[in-house]
Write a structure and sequence with these properties.
With about 140 residues, the protein is α+β, with helices and mostly antiparallel strands. It has one domain (about 1-115). It contains 1 helix and 7 strands; from the N terminus they run αβββββββ. A hairpin with a 2-residue loop joins β4 and β5. Mean pLDDT is about 80; it is low at about 105-115.
Length: about 140
């Protein structure tokens, strides 16, 4: 009886390890594709498991894995994004605080600046400057375009 329990426990551990490896590969592939589509650089070319939870879905119990990854947009900044996998499907993809401004300027060799093109469908002009004078004690908020 103890041997059967040990064999089942080892089988479950191997299954969980393989399922986790498959989810990690899925999340890495999605992060790689999304970064390439936006012209970003996926740093370390990998994702890291941040959170693991058990969720109920219409298909039954599934593991919900939240992976984080770091990426770069051509500047010196390092941004953090996330991919959420539910079972063997990607449930959510987020680029965190990164905003596509359309034109990224990269300084090369002190005085030379290289402009990177905007993504298709994005506005190419500079962003509208905020107003310089406010009335009252409330700062007006604008919706992003």
């Amino acid at each position: 009886m103890d041997t059967l329990f040990l064999v089942i426990l080892c089988g479950l551990a191997v299954w969980f390890w393989l399922d986790s490896a498959r989810a990690r590969e899925l999340a890495t592939a999605r992060a790689r594709v999304e970064c390439k589509r936006r012209g970003l650089l996926l740093l370390d070319d990998t994702v890291a498991l941040r959170r693991l939870r058990l969720r109920t879905t219409p298909q039954g119990l599934r593991f919900r894995r939240h992976f984080d990854f770091d990426f770069n947009d051509g500047t010196e900044a390092r941004y953090r994004g996330s991919v959420t996998a539910l079972g063997s499907l990607v449930a959510d993809f987020d680029l965190g605080g990164w905003r596509d401004t359309g034109q990224v300027t990269v300084a090369v060799h002190d005085s030379v600046e290289v402009g990177m093109p905007a993504l298709p469908g994005q506005p190419k002009g500079p962003a509208e400057p905020p107003p310089t004078e406010y009335t009252g004690n409330v700062v007006p908020l604008r919706r992003p375009r």
